[in-house]
Amino acid sequence: MADISTIQTADGLSFDWALAPAGQPGGGDLAVDTTLRTAVIISLFTDRLAAADDPLPDGTRDRRGWWGDLPLSGQSATTKPIGSRLWLLSRATASAQTARRAKDYCAEALQWLIDDGVAASVAVTTQWLGPGALGIGIAITEPNGALASFNFAWAWNGLVAGV
């Protein structure tokens, strides 16, 4: 599996596409990622369409999500939506319950890796790293037994209480 390499920016608050190193063949072109990193980043940090019964944090009726996940006229919604519902936690209190919900949302977002045979298993951990940062750990066992692990510090802009 090859994707355009997506990396976390230096400020840790966003992501960008990586460029191949200058002075090498393809230098200055978009870099290619043959690991699961880009797939994990897109799965976790793009907004999945909220469920009809999800309370929306901004008080609007905007369920967000990728337009490709919306049902076409006369059809049902896609069975493999892209992204995660982490965005629903943007105004939640930093608590053990919120960390559990984040863990559940991450597992839901990465389930496609198992369903499509890209991974044999996916394990998610979450913990508060301090005010304003939720740590997300991902351990993926590939079908060949290889282990891939990723750690993210998700910037929290909700109410920081009870850390």
Observed structural traits:
163 residues, alpha+beta, 3-stranded antiparallel sheet, two-stranded antiparallel sheet, 2 helices, 7 strands, 23% strand, globular, disordered C terminus
Structure description:
Residues 158-163 have low confidence and may be disordered. The chain starts with a strand and ends in an 8-residue tail after the last strand. It has a three-stranded antiparallel sheet with strand order 5-6-7, with helices on one face. It has a two-stranded antiparallel sheet with strand order 1-4. A two-stranded antiparallel sheet has the order 2-3. Helices cover 18% and strands 23% of the residues. It has helices spanning 37-45, 96-115; strands at 3-4, 6-8, 15-17, 32-33, 121-130, 133-141, 147-155. The protein is an alpha+beta fold. Strand 2 (6-8) and strand 3 form a beta hairpin.
Please render the helix and strand layout as text:
Layout: E1 3-4, E2 6-8, E3 15-17, E4 32-33, H1 37-45, H2 96-115, E5 121-130, E6 133-141, E7 147-155
Antiparallel strand pairs: 1-4, 2-3, 5-6, 6-7
